[in-house]
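User: Here's a chain of 177 residues. Predict its fold as tokens.
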Amino acid sequence: MKISKTPIDGALVIEPDVFGDERGFFMETFQAARYRDVIGDEFEFLQDNYSRSTQGVLRGLHFQKTKPQGKLVRVVRGEVYDVAVDIRLDSPTYGQCHGVRLNAENKLQFWLPPGLAHGFVVLSDVADFEYKCTNYYDSRDEGCLIWNDPELNINWPCDRPLLSDKDKMGFKFKDLF
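Assistant: Prediction complete.
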């Protein structure tokens, strides 16, 4: 597999080895020993999540306040623009954002270490999104940044996304702490 660093400290784009021919393809989406070498042995995946969303849906920018989750994300159908925001106060890349196009064709994975806010917008008709988490989800601990905060200046490839009521009420980055 090929590993690419991003501008956010610890966040990585992972390109798995894919073996294909006219019949289709095969790839390992996760293997504990190999991924431990890439992201470190201090992380253990505890929960897997799967979502399906339609075109224009924007989910995020979500985070856990006191129980941060590392996430290994990928798209198995369709395409999304996936974004991470570094909200770790002690990070050298605090406040930086990075976006990656994830889709069923490129099969890329995005590793987000604990302490990042995360969101994505669906670019295809439908997208199936899967991710592994290093901590359990706790709705009482969830926070949300507003998707279009001018201070973050995220270049979303969508002008009028479909948002949940919760995501419409996200905090501005400057008000986070």
